Amino acid sequence: MTPATPVVLLVLALALTGPGPAALARARWPLRAPRAALVFWQAMALSALLAALGAGLSAATLVLVYQDPHPVVVALHSAALLLTLVVVARLLWSAHTLGTALRAGRRRQRHLVDLLGRADARAPGADVLDAERPLAYCIPGVPSRVVISTPAIDRLADDEVTAVLAHERAHARARHDLVLEAFAVLHNAFPRFVRSRTALDATAGLVEMLADDAARRRSGDVPLARALAGLSTAPAPPGALAATSVTPAARIRRLAHVPASAPLVSAPAYLAAAALFAIPTVAVAVPWLSAVTASLT
Amino acid sequence: MRGVVGRTRLGELERVVMDQLWAFEGPATVRQVHDALSRTRDIAYTTVMTVLDRLARKGSAEQLRDGRAYRYRPAVSREELTAELMHQALDTVDGSDRTLALLRFVDSATPDDAEALRAALAELEQRRADDGDTQP
């Protein structure tokens, strides 16, 4: 192990939190291979997190290899350890608070839908709400619920309703909520002035594309596109801000230009994701861990 | 009880019992709710009791002491519950944890102008018509 280890890991962590996400968010290939892109985002986030924690821990443990460290050196290394512990604590706290809030919100939603929803032959398997506005959504979790309002059903043809329900069931079945929750935990764990919404918005968009692909396989492109157009003309409620990356029009354009599956793009993306995760682990972390182990024995 | 009545079924029973509470004029005993429901379905008295208790714990029904028995009445109107549900379902205020709680088919936080939507849809329909493509 060398004093360079923490520096290398820190540079890696910074590259994977700044330029990496920015480049991936600009790339076009994720439109063709949303599943592989989602895996790539997860690999990048995990790799960045491991590199950052590794940088802190390796800086902290470097002090073990010095024969007679100067007090300033000891203080610096203690600070690195403390910072790492703070990051871990913030992550755990963020996971706890967000998880609690989401579960409470979904439990309440399920209860409300249980009381107000009814079965309707035009939307088999869904909870139908007699509400004023057209809307369709899924309450993820176990058990999950797919909810659609009467004005939405009235507005859509049968095959368009099928497309909407297939889209929402795909979300529920693939547990897209867990992916989004993980990125939100990561996002919330860091102070406002360092974090960016890039990863959160990009993964939210990819999850929509995946559900769109499931829906188009079930009902075809055109009914799905018509449903998107039909339900997004609803006026936005007051206070709503454009925050998410993928608009309904962009999703329709994707349906027109991108086939439902693109294995030729996906394979290299999976390989790159695996490498992104494995290379820093093997090249940097393993020598460091073995050095620490050696110095302790 | 829990083993016999599955979760989904309990949800359905909650709706049936709540509908009945909304239909009554004033607070009703378990017996009255059970009698009313028994006209249209086969339901055990103890099930009605369980469901009313659950509704009270979730704050949707109010439990009133009446001598040795309890009476129940709705704690909220159907309109209030619908308003709460819609408020949550449409809440897209950025930074709220609720934005993540549900997965919406179209996010009302990303309104498109109608022209962009029409153009995108027209292009897709044109392409599919040209392909003669009716792939499932």
In terms of topology, how is this protein built?
The complex is a heterodimer of chains A (297) and B (136).
Chain A: H1 4-17, H2 19-26, H3 29-32, H4 34-61, H5 71-116, E1 127-129, E2 136-139, E3 145-149, H6 150-155, H7 158-173, H8 176-189, H9 198-219, H10 221-232, H11 248-257, H12 263-296
Parallel strand pairs in A: 1-3
Antiparallel strand pairs in A: 2-3
Helix pairs in contact in A: 1-4, 1-12, 4-5, 4-9, 4-12, 5-8, 7-9, 7-10, 8-9, 9-10, 10-11
Chain B: H1 7-23, E1 28-29, H2 30-38, H3 45-57, E2 61-66, E3 69-74, H4 78-90, H5 98-101, E4 103-104, H6 114-131
Antiparallel strand pairs in B: 1-3, 2-3
Helix pairs in contact in B: 1-3, 2-3
Protein described:
The complex is a heterodimer of chains A (297) and B (136). Chain A is mostly helical. Chain A folds into two domains: 1-69 and 263-297, no CATH class; 107-236 and 243-261, no CATH class. Helices cover 72% and strands 4% of the residues of chain A. Chain A is built from twelve helices and three strands, in the order αααααβββααααααα. Chain A has a three-stranded mixed sheet, with helices on both faces. In chain A, α8 (176-189) runs antiparallel to α9 (198-219). The longest helix of chain A has 46 residues, at 71-116. Chain A starts with a helix and ends with a helix. The relative contact order of chain A is 0.14. Chain B is mainly alpha-helical. Chain B has a domain at 7-74: Winged helix-like DNA-binding domain superfamily/Winged helix DNA-binding domain (Arc Repressor Mutant, subunit A), CATH 1.10.10.10. Helix content of chain B is 54%, strand content 12%. Chain B has helices at residues 7-23, 30-38, 45-57, 78-90, 98-101, 114-131, and strands at residues 28-29, 61-66, 69-74, 103-104. A three-stranded antiparallel sheet of chain B has the order 1-3-2. In chain B, a hairpin with a 2-residue loop joins β2 (61-66) and β3. The relative contact order of chain B is 0.09. At the A-B interface, α5, β2, α7, α8 and α9 of A face α1, α4, α5, β4 and α6 of B. β2 (136-139) of chain A pairs antiparallel with β4 of chain B, so a sheet runs across the interface.
